[in-house]
């Protein structure tokens, strides 16, 4: 099982350069991937967390990280597809993928903040259909020399599109979310599942059902499963058994046990989220994972 680290571009850190340094430290500590989040406005729960502090743009941060690193994978957790036009987004992602020599993992979702949809003039109620069409359109742009696509929301034909991503089918698309709609999106368009805040027991129940649905649709059931969870090292044990916890919080021994339970349940990647703008805390967690947890996995 591989470990990723959530870079706090969503936590009000003043300088992107500090986020880049944090990502280089994660690479030096042998993390497999770093991940950034996306919101466009400080609204709803984002406003409560940040006030007027900055929420840095996801692909800008990943581009800066790509320039400062050489091997760590670069993930989005997640880009909200209906907020983007697929042609522009496909070009940005392909350019980053070329620049990073194929290190991009495109985590995608639909979001839940209606205010942001209203501000962009995008239908909140149709966000699932728009997201599905966006994915299909990007696949055409990445795989066809003269891309053609005709949908309800997007259409294009007869024009060259470049650059293409490093891999001929495009970067891995890991669909975020635990809902039935997210799983249908994965079956139709994705190459991996990116659930949030499931306990090991819950993951162990949900994954076999998803794998059955994938197989029934003629898709491989052997897919990456990358779960993102809040991460906290505690001094004293919790009273809830590790396999039933939805957040990766506990003593070092409990965390090792919980990560083992996730692996047993089928997780291939765990993305650790300190959920804090405190750069010193983030660094401390990276170091402690490297020295105290990773050797036991």
Structural overview:
The chain has helices at 16-28, 44-50, 58-68, 86-99, 114-120, 127-143, 180-189, 200-216, 252-265, 279-293; strands at residues 2-6, 33-36, 73-76, 79-80, 104-109, 149-150, 155-156, 173-176, 192-194, 226-233, 248-250, 269-273. The chain is of the alpha/beta class and 297 residues long. Helix 1 (16-28) crosses helix 3 (58-68), helix 3 runs parallel beside helix 4 and helix 6 packs parallel to helix 7 (180-189). The protein is globular and about 60 Å long. The N and C termini lie close together (8 Å). The model has no long low-confidence stretch (mean pLDDT 97).
Notable features of this structure?
297 residues; alpha/beta; TIM Barrel
CATH architecture: Alpha-Beta Barrel
Number of domains: 1
Helix-strand string: EHEHHEEHEHHEEEHEHEEHEH
**Tally the helices: what do you get?**
10
User: Within the CATH hierarchy, at the fold level, what is the topology?
Assistant: TIM Barrel
The residue fraction in helices comes out at 40-55%
Helices and strands in order, then pairings?
Layout: E1 2-6, H1 16-28, E2 33-36, H2 44-50, H3 58-68, E3 73-76, E4 79-80, H4 86-99, E5 104-109, H5 114-120, H6 127-143, E6 149-150, E7 155-156, E8 173-176, H7 180-189, E9 192-194, H8 200-216, E10 226-233, E11 248-250, H9 252-265, E12 269-273, H10 279-293
Parallel strand pairs: 1-2, 1-12, 2-3, 3-5, 4-5, 5-8, 8-9, 10-11, 10-12
Antiparallel strand pairs: 6-7
Helix pairs in contact: 1-3, 1-10, 3-4, 4-6, 6-7, 8-9
């Amino acid at each position: 099982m591989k470990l990723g680290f959530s870079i706090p571009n969503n936590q009000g850190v003043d300088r992107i350069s500090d986020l880049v340094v944090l990502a280089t430290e994660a690479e030096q500590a042998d993390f497999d991937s770093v991940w950034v989040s996306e919101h466009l406005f400080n609204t709803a729960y984002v406003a409560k967390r940040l006030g007027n502090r900055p929420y840095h743009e996801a692909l800008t941060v990943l581009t800066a990280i790509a320039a400062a690193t050489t091997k760590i994978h670069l993930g989005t957790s997640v880009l909200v597809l209906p907020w983007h036009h697929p042609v522009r987004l496909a070009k940005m992602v392909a350019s980053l993928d070329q620049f990073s020599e194929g290190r991009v993992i495109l985590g995608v979702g639909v979001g839940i903040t209606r205010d942001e949809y209203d501000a962009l003039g995008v239908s909140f109620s149709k966000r699932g259909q728009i997201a599905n069409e966006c994915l299909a359109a990007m696949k055409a742009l990445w795989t066809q020399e003269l891309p053609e696509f005709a949908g309800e929301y997007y259409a294009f034909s007869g024009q060259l599109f470049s650059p293409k991503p490093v891999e001929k089918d495009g970067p891995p698309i890991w669909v975020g979310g635990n809902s039935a709609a997210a799983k249908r999106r994965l079956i139709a368009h994705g190459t991996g599942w990116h659930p949030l805040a499931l306990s090991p027991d819950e993951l162990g129940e949900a994954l076999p059902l998803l794998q059955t649905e994938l197989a029934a649709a003629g898709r491989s059931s052997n897919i990456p499963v990358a779960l993102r969870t809040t991460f906290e090292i505690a001094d004293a044990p919790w009273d809830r058994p590790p396999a039933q916890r939805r957040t990766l919080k506990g003593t070092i021994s409990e965390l090792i046990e919980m990560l083992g339970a996730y692996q047993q349940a089928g997780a291939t990647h765990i993305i650790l989220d300190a959920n804090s703008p405190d750069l010193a805390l983030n660094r401390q967690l990276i170091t402690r994972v490297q020295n105290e947890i990773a050797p036991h996995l």
